[in-house]
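fyi for ur records
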Amino acid sequence: MTREKTEYITLQQFLKKAGLVQSGGEAKVMILQENVSVNGIPETHRGRKLYPGDIVEACGRKLVVG
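which gave:
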């Protein structure tokens, strides 16, 4: 199955769901300050699509998208 047909969550939504931020505004600031990486690469787009198996690093934690 290709990624286009797989369900995804945006980086901003993921950070909120994981409890790393309380609001979309907090997520925006964290991401724009380059404090977040996806699969080892710094990410500055809060709308970045995350798929199962992607690894998000933020606040000293590594989280796997499920």
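Residues 24-32 form the longest helix (9 residues). thats all i got for now
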